Amino acid sequence: MSAPRLKLADLKGFPENVEEDGKIKTVEFIDASNEIVAVIEKFGKLFTPIVMDMRGNSSQLFDLYQKDVKNWEFIEDMILTAPELNSRSWLLWLKRALELIERFFYYVITDPNIIAQKSDSLQPMIVRAYNEVLKPYHGFLLQQTFSMLNRWIPNRKTLLGVDEYFEDNIKHLQILMPRMRKHIDKVDIFLKQNGFDDTSKV
């Protein structure tokens, strides 16, 4: 029995506790986002465009943070006060990409045939996640690109494994994804409350 591409037990993930009225620590958010980028890299080389986009947005946010570490401990403060207005777009698109992956794994761990290891195809889950999260903001060319990528998503056995490997990965997804969802929702509320949620297509 060969090991799958993913070993989710190695992930630290997003912090467990997110206070409803609190803020998100910049470095913790970026570090957790970079872990997700590394996960997507395991999907295969065809997913490089997603990896590069996420890594670019994450890197630019971190480079910006380093310009004022003292005052930008929290990502909300950084986005509100940074002179680089592009930072709003960096956070917006990073959030959307994170949400794509969170929705994908959510549909994986809530599919009874996947959990029972009766089905191998993960394509319906990535298609559903894409249609919900990114498709509304993509023009024709990007929609066609993602349509091609979706067809090349690895199957369950390749990505998550079988038997003990699979069960361990599912166990950790069930722990990691709710924490990730809390951070996504918090960033989403922040962006919308401040008018930074640009809904135009690219």
UniProtKB/TrEMBL annotation:
One of its GO terms (molecular function) is ceramide 1-phosphate transfer activity. It holds the Pfam family GLTP. Gene3D superfamilies: Glycolipid transfer protein. Residues 24-160 form the Glycolipid transfer protein domain. Keywords: Transport. The keyword Acetylation does not apply. InterPro entries: GLTP_sf, Glycolipid_transfer_prot_dom. It comes from the Eukaryota. GO terms for cellular component: cytosol; membrane. Transmembrane segments: none annotated. This is Glycolipid transfer protein domain-containing protein. It comes from Chironomus riparius.
